[in-house]
Design goal:
The complex is a heterodimer of chains A (about 110) and B (about 110). Helices cover about 0% and strands about 50% of the residues of chain A. Chain A has about 110 residues and is mainly β. In chain A, the strands form two sheets. In chain A, strands 2, 4, 5, 6, 9, 10 and 11 form a seven-stranded mixed sheet that branches. In chain A, a hairpin with a 6-residue loop joins strand 4 and strand 5. With about 110 residues, chain B is mostly beta strands. Helix content of chain B is about 0%, strand content about 55%. In chain B, a hairpin with a 4-residue loop joins strand 7 and strand 8. The radius of gyration of chain B is 13 Å and the shape is globular. Classes of the chains: A mainly beta (about 110), B mainly beta (about 110). At the A-B interface, strand 5 and strand 10 of A face strand 4, strand 5, strand 9 and strand 10 of B.
C-alpha cells in the first residue's frame, strides 16, 4: 500500500515568508508526527497528533510554528516569518494508533530559507 | 526529558565483517527502542526494534541487544554487505511517549 507522502519535496523561500508543508499519512493511521532533521543530526520531535488533536506540541521551537490536522488524516505544518535557521528537512511519520507502534516516515520536505 | 547518545559517529568495516553501534539513554521509563537506516536523501526506514521486556532480538543479519540496568542498547550487523552502507539512527521512547533520536552513525562498508 501507499506509504507516507509529503509535499513539496523541496521548498525554497525568502526570510520572512510564510510556508506550508503537507503530510499524507498511511491510510488508517491515527497517530501522526512531525520531526525536523538538520544536517548530520537525528530527527528532532516537533509535534504529535492523535486523530485531529495535538497530543503533544512541546517540540515546536516557538510560536512561529503551528500544525493542524483538521480531519484526522492530512496534516499541514505552517511556519510564519521564516528565518534562515528554519532551514532543515521536515519529516512526517505516522503510526497505527499509538507512539508504541512502529513509526513510518515520509520522504521529507527540504526547506531552504534564503 | 530523554537524552540518547550514539557512538561511533562514523564506522568503516570490511565487507563480510561485523558492525556494532551503541546507544545509551537517560530515561529509566523508556520502553521502546527502534533502529532506523537512512540512505542519502531518503527517508528513515525501520530495520529492527526492541521493547523493554526482552533483552535481544534478531532478524537475519541484524540483531539488537538491550541492557535496561545499564540503560544501553546496541545494533549488530553481521556479514556486512555494500548495501548496508548508510546512516543508522537509534531512538528511545521515554516516559513522555516521544521518540528521541541519537545523532546517527555513518556506516561505510569497504568492498
Amino acid at each position: 500500500g501507499a506509504g507516507v507522502s509529503q509535499t513539496p519535496s523541496n521548498k525554497v523561500t525568502e526570510k520572512g515568508k510564510y510556508v506550508e508543508l503537507r503530510c499524507d499519512p498511511i491510510s488508517g493511521h491515527t497517530a501522526l508526527y512531525w520531526y525536523r532533521q538538520s544536517l548530520g543530526q537525528g530527527p528532532e520531535f516537533l509535534i504529535y497528533f492523535q486523530g485531529t488533536g495535538a497530543a503533544d506540541d512541546s517540540g515546536l521551537p516557538n510560536d512561529r510554528f503551528f500544525a493542524v490536522r483538521p480531519e484526522g488524516s492530512v496534516s499541514t505544518l505552517k511556519i510564519q516569518r521564516t528565518e534562515r535557521g528554519d532551514s532543515a528537512v521536515y519529516l512526517c511519520a505516522s503510526s497505527q494508533s499509538a507512539p508504541t507502534d512502529t513509526q513510518y516516515f515520509g520522504p521529507g520536505t527540504r526547506l531552504t530559507v534564503l | 526529558g530523554e537524552n540518547v547518545e550514539q557512538h561511533p559517529s562514523t564506522l568503516s568495516v570490511q565487507e563480510g565483517d561485523s558492525a556494532v553501534i551503541k546507544c545509551t539513554y537517560s530515561d529509566s521509563a523508556s520502553n521502546y527502542f527502534p533502529w532506523y537506516k537512512q540512505e542519502l536523501g531518503k527517508r528513515p526506514q525501520l530495520i529492527i526494534d526492541i521493547r523493554s521486556n526482552v533483552g535481544e532480538k534478531k532478524d537475519q543479519r541484524i540483531a539488537v541487544t538491550l541492557n535496561k540496568t545499564a540503560k544501553h542498547f546496541s545494533l549488530h550487523i553481521t556479514e556486512t554487505q555494500p548495501e548496508d552502507s548508510a546512516v543508522y539512527f537509534c531512538a528511545a521512547r521515554g516516559g513522555n511517549e516521544k521518540l528521541t533520536f541519537g545523532t546517527g552513525t555513518r556506516l561505510t562498508i569497504i568492498p
